[in-house]
Amino acid sequence: MRIIRSRTELATLVAQWRNAGETIGFVPTMGSLHNGHLTLVNALDGQATRRIVSIFVNPIQFDNAADFQLYPRGLEADAALLEGTGKVAVLYAPDGAEMYPEGFATRITVSGLDGMLCGADRPGHFDGVATVVTKLLLQTGADIAAFGEKDYQQLCLIRRLVQDLNLPVRIKPVPTVREADGLALSSRNRRLTPQQREQAPYLPAALRACIADIQAGKAVDACLQSCRENLKSHGFNVHYLDLRSGDTLLTTETLTPDARLFVAASLGDIRLIDNMAAA
């Protein structure tokens, strides 16, 4: 596995692969890798002859400077984890100046999808995501890129921008990977205190209970309100809890075939997100 830090060096290698008829699979990450990321790498089995994983903590998607500074980093450990898979050809790890050189002035906005759910209380977050993902897709020349369903809004947004900008890449969704107690894998989990880590699994448990109530025919609004109150009673600050279409992300009051339950809730200053199919 090669570690590449410059887009010029990456472009040279990608051109060589293209000339040799290789296909390129890509997994974008912000590092602090875990089994969820490795699942994304494995999801490209049989889909591409070369795999690139990027690690870049993207400053323009953070609305809180302290959150950006606190985001866990560990390139050496991440590189060893990727090397151990035997599947990754390149770890692309550019720095901020490489991605956003002096004078950089462009932002990509995916209107509509950027202002709901996480976008509603994280202004500019999805502009940052859309901008960096577009750059990375172009830099890697990816034929296929894997994205996890845990960040379902992000997945929808990226599908939209790829379609709208006619980017020649296929987006492959990968189901959420969970701990044995149900908590969705996330780099942010490492920042939870021992007590918070004990509380955290109640988040997916509450979602499952809410979905069971909705499927039993109880009123959606009443189920959501009960779930919010239960989460608060277990120490969560609930940012949103919505039943929405998995296609459009618009709210729904009925159990449509594509309905999903979405939540963002914090324990202390650690924000956790999750979603589950409701039908």
UniProtKB/TrEMBL annotation:
(R)-pantoate binds at residues 61, 154. Gene3D superfamilies: HUPs, Pantoate-beta-alanine ligase, C-terminal domain. One of its GO terms (cellular component) is cytosol. It is found in: Cytoplasm. ATP binds at residues 30-37, 148-151, 177, 185-188. The active site is at residue 37. Homodimer. PANTHER family: CYTIDYLATE KINASE/PANTOATE-BETA-ALANINE LIGASE (PTHR21299), PANTOATE--BETA-ALANINE LIGASE (PTHR21299:SF1). The reaction proceeds by a bi uni uni bi ping pong mechanism. This is Pantothenate synthetase. It comes from Acetobacter fabarum. The lineage of its organism: Bacteria, Pseudomonadati, Pseudomonadota, Alphaproteobacteria, Acetobacterales. The gene is panC.
